[in-house]
Amino acid sequence: MQQGTDTVGQGIAGFTSPPTGMLVGGEWREARAGASLPVFDPATGEVVAAVADARVEDAAEAVDAAAAAFPHWSATSPRRRAALLHDVFMAVHERAEEFAALITLEMGKPLAESRTEVAYAADFLRWYAEEAVRVTGTFRTAPDGSARHLTLSRPVGPCLLVTPWNFPLAMITRKVAPALAAGCTVVLKPAEETPLSALHFAHVMAEAGLPAGVVNVLSTSRPGPLVEAILRDRRIRKLSFTGSTGVGRRLLALAAPGVLRTSMELGGNAPFIVFDDADVDAAVDGAVAAKLRNGGQSCVAANRFIVADSVAPQFVDGLADRLRAQVVGPGADPRSTLGPLINGAQRDRAVGLVDDAMAHGADPVVHYGTAAPGDAFLKPVLLDRVAPSAKIARQEIFGPVATVCRFSTEQEGLALANDTESGLVGYVYTRDLDRAVRAIEAMECGMVGVNRGHISDASAPFGGVKQSGLGREGSEVGMQEYLETRYASISAAP
Ligand code: SIN
Asked: Which residues form the active site (predicted)?
């Protein structure tokens, strides 16, 4: 690694820093003409590494490698693919501290949260190691008896995986593990902000014995042209993307000419409803989890707290106390409970949304005072009585800013929850089982947390409806995203 990065692994026995090249066909390569992509520590704004900056020419070679590796990998026995994924799962666990240090370095979250991410990331490897040997088919007699119908699942082919910066490792394993389990090969383009975790993961996979070309990794400062070039290549058969709805729409358009299979995990605007019969203390605990995980930089972060009038004062007081108690500081400092946002621009965007909401009448119950622009830290904010039409209630905040609006009837609460183009997750707090079931059925989203503020799990189908995306990741459903159904009709004389 480059200047400044030798501190990454301090105190971690045997940690060799991640590679800084690009991985194509099993070879670590330097960039053409030495082009490099700087990696910043969000806590200091300093450059901590420089990695190879891939160009469009590299895209073609990465697709060559993924396409060349596909026949052999797809024919590799499920048991062998499972064993390899299991070995990678073990290696990630053994090297959890290295991964956690890298995640905190390049993304900023507190070390304790990075460790949780590593465990979450490893779970996808274990789940899909188990799933690899459970791909089934059917055999049936045609209704008129003249044929037998055989259905089987085949890997879709070489895939392009585009991952975000907010979970630099888990969003990679959530795509790579089912792709490999299904027999697909991949070109991975990690976020330009967080390439180190991706490169270290690729290194760990290669050490575990992954054949050349099965996983190829290109980091780049010019994601647009690179991704476009890969999607134009007809050998690529699938795109899986996690990121904003705006970018997702553009990628869907680019995937259309090749009629690619797509999985789109896009933005959210999660409602968090606290009904009048809720256990309010539990709701406050859930709210802290759903709002502050990753500093609010998650598509499943609670964006709008929708609280029954009768319990709103207790909920707002409880949440305000918990937000004031947060220790904001560098993720590497064990005292920090909230790290920096990914960069100053993200912070300024959140501040702009807060200012706008206040200009439109929101009540600042917890507020940072005058926020100096320029660094990436943001103290938590709690705004009460936010108008449902305010910008902050219509957009994904991606920061530690909680907004509350109040309601009086169940119907009104559910209508407010659904008043958005997004539909990823919703949270509901109630002690009434009938009401919980009504809410699960009425909420327009792919996932519902009932009396809990955390729903992410490798064994569950993660994904959204409306403009929050297409397809699911995790569980056996996530495996189907990398398989296509083939049907053979076999003539059979009666
Ligand atoms: C995301 O924010 O994109 C994913 C969060 C999760 O998997 O919990």
From this structure: 265
